[in-house]
Amino acid sequence: SCFNLPGFRTCAGCDSDDDCAGDTLCSYPDPTSPVGRTCVAPGSIADGEFCWIDPDHDADATCENDHCNQVGESAIGLCGECRNDFDCPGGSCVIPDDAGAFCQPD
Predict the structure, then answer these.
(1) Could you tell me the pTM of the whole model?
(2) CB-count burial class (<10 Å; 0-12, 13-18, 19+) for 31
(3) N or C: which end of the chain has fewer CB atoms below 10 A?
C-alpha cells in the first residue's frame, strides 16, 4: 500500500505482521531511512537502526537485542541494547535521541 508524506510518496510491502510469511515481521527495509516497510526476519535489525513502532506489531522482536525504543511520538524507533536500567545489570541504560540505546557501567 502507498501513502503520502510531506514532500514525497512512500509504498510499503506490508502493512502489518499478518502480511508477512512464516515468522517474518513487518518493518523498515533500509536501516538508514524509515521509509516503506517490508518483511524482515526476527532479530535482523542491528542496534542503532530503525524499527517500526505499532500497537499491533512486536517491534522488539525485529531487533537483535529485543529492544525497539520509540523516537518521540512517532511510529519510528531505534533498536538498542536496553530499554531501561533493569536491562543493564551493574549499569545504566543510556537512550540518545539519534542512536541505539546502550548499557553504561556504573
Answers:
(1) 0.78
(2) middle
(3) C
SS3 per residue for the chain: CEEEECCEEEECCCCCHHHCCCCCEEECCECCECCCCEEECCCCECCCCEEECCCCCCHHHHECCCCEEECCCCCEEEECCCCCHHHCCCEEEECCCCCCCEEEEC
Tens digits of residue pLDDT in 29-72: 665 666 678 888 999 999 998 888 887 788 889 999 999 998 88
- 90 Rama sector, left if φ>0, alpha if ψ -120 to 50, beta otherwise: left
